[in-house]
Write a structure and sequence with these properties.
This protein starts with 12 loop residues before the first helix and ends in an 8-residue tail after the last strand. Strands 1, 6, 7, 9, 12, 13 and 14 form a seven-stranded mixed sheet that branches. Strands 2, 3, 4, 5, 8, 10 and 11 form a seven-stranded mixed sheet that branches. Strands 16-15-19-18-17 form a five-stranded antiparallel sheet. Helix 9 runs parallel beside helix 13. The chain has five domains: 64 residues; 184 residues, Sandwich (Immunoglobulin-like); 129 residues, PAS domain (Beta-Lactamase, 2-Layer Sandwich), CATH 3.30.450; 85 residues, Helix Hairpins, CATH 1.10.287; 148 residues, Heat Shock Protein 90 (2-Layer Sandwich), CATH 3.30.565.10. The protein is 37% helix and 23% strand. The longest helix is centred in the middle third of the chain and has 50 residues. The chain contains 13 helices and 26 strands. With 694 residues, the chain is of the alpha+beta class.
């Protein structure tokens, strides 16, 4: 029986149905894209609501502008020479070090000297307020540090000038300095009196020195100016002066811009849980702030949440807000609002994929833009809603995929198993040479495979009936032809023996010879049929193949006296379990074939050899015409003959076919090959050589 080739997994029904089950992935794919569209729609709706909220707050502030609008400077400029003061959650320690100001360090403002040497001196300004006090952090860059000789004559060395509003529109000036690092002295210019309400600390730094001040807000009264005077030679004129603004008159002092209680009160009634409101002046400085963006919510650590976080943006617990403590805001929406039109923009929160929506709207007072309102909100709620829906979608899709995919896989396994059984059953029912060896029973399944099984069984039964008919045809023909042939033959013999009919003798002779040939054909057909039947009942016994072949070679030498035989038989015994009469018949036909095709005056070689100690090979060689490649594989089939000449004997192409049947009956095989000067026909048979295991 030919070995069945099992299909590769990637060519099997299991794999194909598994691929079909992958179409279920279209469900989460479609759901995911639907959620993206839903997110886009919700975000657009959120942007529209945020813009409307900003417009409402801006109109509310415009209607109550008298209670919050800052004082205007000369020429009606609201923020001329302004200095921003940050709100402080806790008051810093006045120690001259910048550790308490690190959170605001990035928002410091630099002022350079206005003298001919602009690089002579410069400083960074940071200011904040807490309760009724102003706190200033001034970091001065000065290549050469000169201290005054006396705390009463501070203008002999490096010092600061603090200008505060004074009476009669004239500013009050205070000299700030020290003769050594430590607490500074605040001396009022002109009177020489020390102002104890102004406290500060002077500390040296790698770039120069650092001054930290504390000033009561009541002294500043909304305006202030600070100047740094650089003295390179004691008692000499200043090498450079850097200042925030002019300091001689009150109008020259810089306005202090800071969130006020009035603006905070106006924003108190607004939602502060998920929105943040900022009021900006024309310089985009924050003069009012209320609310906060809601803190991030932990999304959990379950596998679905982690998978979801890989697909879309989700809020995280470490999300920061870069705008939370900025004193000055900027952005496309803010610039658009200050030009008179509302705008909205999206910002990415650092360290997160969460977006912050920022809507800005101008505050119009008497058709003049006096500031803008910025309302901010994150998309966290949308993403959390999307996450919840996606979690459910992924869970449902996973369950559907597992259930449906598992069902399809089980169905594919059952289907494959049934097809495999069907294939094995019909392969075993038919022998290698096409004969039906046993009956098969069909299943009672009502599906297509059951119908296929019943159809194949019906076809097999019809094929078996036809095969039986063909196998018995030779016997029937022989039985039917033998009687009339006998009558014809006897009549022709009588005619030939009749002395009065001598003229008919040649014709009668030819007719007699024809009947004999027909009788021989029927005999050989009968012989082939009987051999196939005999194979089913033949018994095998332990035989010495060496002795059998030596005996057959002696018989061939006596039968074919005109032909030389070269027998190469080993001396040792080779045991095998055989039917000796069948092996003799097979070797007879190989020798007869070699005799018919050998070249005259050449010997026929009969050789017995062993291979791998378990196979005995009987070879019959003759010198003669080679075999064509296309006929080698068909020589041992039924009704195949190479004889093209006519002789007195019929040749039906059954001899080598019978040899193959005998070899296969002994679990062996037959083969033929061309050699240098002829051809070789061989039979491989299982055997036991001396020393091999039985």
């Amino acid at each position: 029986m030919p070995q069945r080739q099992h299909p590769h997994f990637f060519q099997s029904l299991r794999f194909k149905l598994l691929l079909a089950s992958l179409s279920l992935l279209l469900i989460p794919w479609a759901g995911y894209h639907y959620l993206l569209e839903m997110e886009s729609s919700l975000r657009q709706a959120q942007e529209a609501l945020l813009s409307n909220r900003a417009e409402i707050v801006a109109n509310m502030l415009a209607a109550d502008s008298d209670n919050w609008l800052p004082e205007t400077g000369p020429g009606g400029n609201q923020t001329a020479n302004s200095l921003y003061i940050h709100p402080l959650e806790n008051p810093p320690d006045i120690d001259g070090y910048a550790e308490d100001w690190l959170a605001l360090k990035s928002q410091s403002r630099r002022f350079d000297a206005s003298a001919s040497r602009a690089d002579a001196v410069s400083f960074d300004w940071l200011a904040g307020f807490h309760a009724g006090l102003l706190y200033l952090m001034i970091e001065i860059r000065d290549e050469r540090l000169v201290y005054p000789r006396s705390d009463r004559r501070l203008n002999d060395g490096d010092h600061l000038i603090l200008a505060l509003p004074g009476p009669a529109a004239k500013a009050r000036l205070y000299l700030l300095g020290t003769s050594a690092p430590g607490w500074i002295n605040a001396i009022e210019a002109g009177s020489g009196r020390e102002q104890s309400a102004i406290r500060g600390e002077w500390q040296e730094s790698p770039q120069g020195y650092r001054v930290e001040l504390r000033v009561p807000r009541s002294l500043a009264n909304g305006r202030l100016s600070l100047a740094v005077v650089d003295i390179d030679q004691p008692g000499a004129a200043p090498a450079g002066i850097a200042s925030t603004s002019g300091w001689r008159n009150n109008d020259n002092l810089a306005l202090l811009v800071m969130p006020t209680l009035q603006t905070d009160r106006l924003l108190q009634g607004l939602d502060s849980q998920t929105h943040r409101y900022s009021i900006l002046n024309l310089e985009r400085q924050v003069i009012g702030r209320h609310g906060s963006i809601s803190p991030a919510i932990d999304i959990g650590n379950n596998p679905l949440s982690r998978l979801f976080s890989l697909l879309i943006s989700v809020p995280t617990a470490s999300t920061g807000d870069s705008r939370e403590k900025l004193g000055r805001l900027d952005g496309p929406e803010i610039r658009r609002a200050l030009s008179g039109e509302g705008g909205i923009y999206r910002y990415q929160l650092p360290g997160s994929k969460v977006m912050t929506l920022s809507a800005a709207h101008p505050i119009l007072v008497d058709d003049r833009v006096t500031g803008t309102v910025v309302v901010e909100q994150t998309t966290r709620e949308i993403l959390l809603l999307q996450q919840s829906a996606s979690d459910r979608l992924l869970l449902i899709s996973l369950m559907l995929f597992v259930i449906t995919g598992g069902a399809l896989l089980l169905f594919a396994s059952s289907l494959t198993r049934r097809i495999t059984r069907l294939n094995r059953k019909y392969h075993q029912a038919v022998s290698k040479d096409g004969r039906i060896v046993h009956e098969v029973s069909a299943t009672r399944d009502r599906d297509e495979l059951g119908e296929l099984d019943r159809s194949l069984r019906a076809v097999l039964q019809r094929s078996k009936a036809y095969t039986t008919y063909l196998e018995s045809m030779a016997s029937r023909l022989a039985h039917e032809f033998r009687t009339p042939l006998t009558i014809v033959q006897s009549s022709l013999e009588n005619i030939q023996n009749d002395s009065d009919r001598a003229s008919a003798s040649p014709y009668a002779k030819r007719a007699l010879e024809g009947t004999r040939r027909l009788n021989l054909i029927l005999t050989r057909l009968r012989e082939a049929t009987r051999l196939e039947q005999a194979l089913q009942s033949a018994e095998r016994v332990d035989v010495d193949i060496t002795g059998l072949c030596r005996s057959l070679c002696s018989g061939y030498a006596g039968s074919y006296r005109q032909i030389a035989f070269d027998c190469q038989i080993p001396d040792h015994a080779i045991q095998a379990r055989l039917a000796p009469e069948l092996i003799s018949q097979a070797l007879d036909k190989l020798v007869s074939n070699a005799v018919d095709f050998h070249r005259p005056r050449t010997a026929i070689c009969i050789e017995l050899a062993t291979r791998e100690e378990e196979t005995a090979t009987i070879l019959v060689r003759n010198q003669g015409p080679p075999l064509a490649d296309e006929i080698k594989q068909r020589l041992f089939d039924s009704m195949v003959s190479l004889r093209n000449t006519r002789d007195d004997q019929p040749h039906l192409g059954l001899g080598l076919y019978l040899v193959r049947l005998i070899a296969e009956f002994h679990q062996g095989r037959t083969w033929a090959a061309n050699e240098d000067d002829g051809v070789c026909f061989a039979i491989d048979l299982p055997c036991r050589t001396p020393g091999s295991k039985p």
